[in-house]
Amino acid sequence: MKTGPVLVLGLAKTGAETAAVLRSEGIDVTVVEERPTNSEYEVRTRAAGTTVLTGAPADGWDALVAGFSLVVPSPGVRPDHAALAAAHRAGVPVRSEIEIAAERIVAPIVAVTGTNGKTTVTALITAMLDASGSRAIAAGNIGTPLIHYAGAAPATGVDVVVAEVSSFQLEFTERFHPKVAVLLAVADDHLDWHGSFAAYRSAKAKVFAAQSAGDLLVYDADDPVASALAATAPSRTVAVSLDPARVDAARVVDGALRDVDGDTLADVASLPRALPHDLSNSLAAATAALAVGATRDGVRAALSTFRTMPHRVALVGEARGVRYYDDSKATNPHATAHAIAGFDSVVLLAGGRNKAVDLTVLAADLDRIRSVVAFGEAAPEVERAFAGKRPVVRADSMHAVVRLAAGAAQPGDVVLLSPACASWDWYAGGYEARGDDFAAEVAQLIRETDELNETADTGESR
Q1: In what order do the strands lie in the sheet with 414-417?
Q2: How many CA atoms lie within 13 A of 147 on its CB side?
Q3: What is the pLDDT of residue 50?
Q4: What does the pLDDT read at residue 46?
Q5: Average pLDDT score over the chain
Q6: Is residue 260 classed exposed, middle or buried when 0-12, 13-18 and 19+ CB atoms within 10 A define those classes?
Q7: Do the strands 216-220 and 180-183 form a parallel or antiparallel pair, or are they unpaired?
Q8: pTM for this structure?
Q9: Is the pLDDT reported for residue 87 higher than 90?
Q10: What integer pLDDT is reported at residue 460 of this predicted model?
Q11: Cα Rg for the chain, rounded, in angstroms?
Q12: Handedness of CA 34, 40, 43, 49 (dihedral sign)
């Protein structure tokens, strides 16, 4: 039965690919792009091959939406958008692109979500499958829209699709049904978009809500929210934990990653990095990968060679016995807490644009924090979180952030850019641009330090 006309909201990469796929099936598609400012807008308009409307409809959303059988919002279209409210009033279904895509993908899907670690676990599962000889692709929020792989199947050269899925994408799903779902820890994030933590966690739970008894949910048993959500899953579940006493979970015991049966997956010493969240991510990835065809040899090979992705607790330099780490991807307090837990003495660099979450929790692990440099729109909130507990200074540029941190740090310390906030107040290029700016400032600091050392060695005056 042919689907009636479809309205797609947004003509960025996901919207354009969704429109093109539906149009290729002979479905009438209209796209509304309210802010056609992207430099690729004209190209995407032509590629979509369908009607494109710009701006809000002159006759109102109710009149426009009433003529469609389905509305597909691009990721980032808020639940309270006027078009979606009109769809609800008219009884027109609203469905996410990932659900549209999943219906067209024949290969098994592994879907990964959680507040932090999604991209790393998605990439790691894909690497494990590749090392096992399976033809795997990573898609979704990791970069390429899931709809791009409509029709993916073993016959087309794809054995498994590994999809990173965000709460924005899951919000508008009803029948999304991955063969394996991975639910990492769930903590406060994107409350400015979802409106409440209850709504946010409800969206995350949709990663497994439509699974059946023959499917699998892998979840972080060390996180109380993920554990509570997993208790409602209709599918089989496997827990992962860093607690060696959790005999019902894949866990870390005696320096080894072990599966739920207690068999060794890999030695911790063989991992390039073994911070607590690295171990948890590795266990989740291995459990999921083995469920869709990875071999133990493939899992071990991937774990031994996988390198951390950029801007995720990445070492960018060392000067005067102080190491500088870029964790710009940490855009919520939960991610920052995980990063802090990996070090003994930290000068924390935090701030940016808060996403309506409580920043006072940043002070929960004070024993590991020497001092704090606060920056960006949220600097006053960061200051309040540490007031009377640790020294806090405020910086008005990344140059000042790095110099103030260098002045506060002592040999053996770690200077950690782990902002707990989004980057859009200072950086149009997102967290990547923020991390790159930090790395450039650290590089400049190291050059100046080296020059001073050379001058001292030769006895020259400057």
Answers
A1: 314-319, 322-326, 414-417, 346-351, 369-375, 392-395
A2: 22
A3: 79
A4: 64
A5: 93
A6: middle
A7: parallel
A8: 0.88
A9: yes
A10: 47
A11: 24
A12: negative
The span from the CA of 323 to the CA of 346, in Å, is 10
Structure tokens at 128: 């494990």
Domains annotated for the chain, with CATH where assigned, are: 6-94 (3.40.50.720), 98-305 (3.40.1190.10), 314-455 (3.90.190.20)
CA gap 224, 410 in Å, rounded: 36
User: For residue 409, what are its two tokens?
Assistant: 């740090």
Structure tokens given for 178:
């991955």
Task: Report the interhelical angle of 13-24 vs 41-48 (nearest 10°).
Answer: 20
Distance CA 105, CA 135 (A): 14
**Residue 426 to residues 231, 316, 391, 396, 422, Cα–Cα distance (Å):** 41, 21, 24, 10, 9
Bridge partners (DSSP) of residue 30 are 7, 51
Please state, in angstroms and rounded to a whole number, the distance separating the CA atoms of residues 425 and 375. 10
Q: What is the 3-state secondary structure (H, E, C) of 347-380?
A: EEEEECECCCCCHHHHHHHHHHEEEEEEECCCHH
Amino acid letter for position 197: F
CA distance 69 to 5: 6
Confirm if 97 and 169 have CB atoms less than 8 A apart: yes
Spatial separation of the C-alpha atoms in residues 117 and 300, rounded to whole Å: 19
Judge whether 189 and 200 are in contact, CB under 8 Å: yes
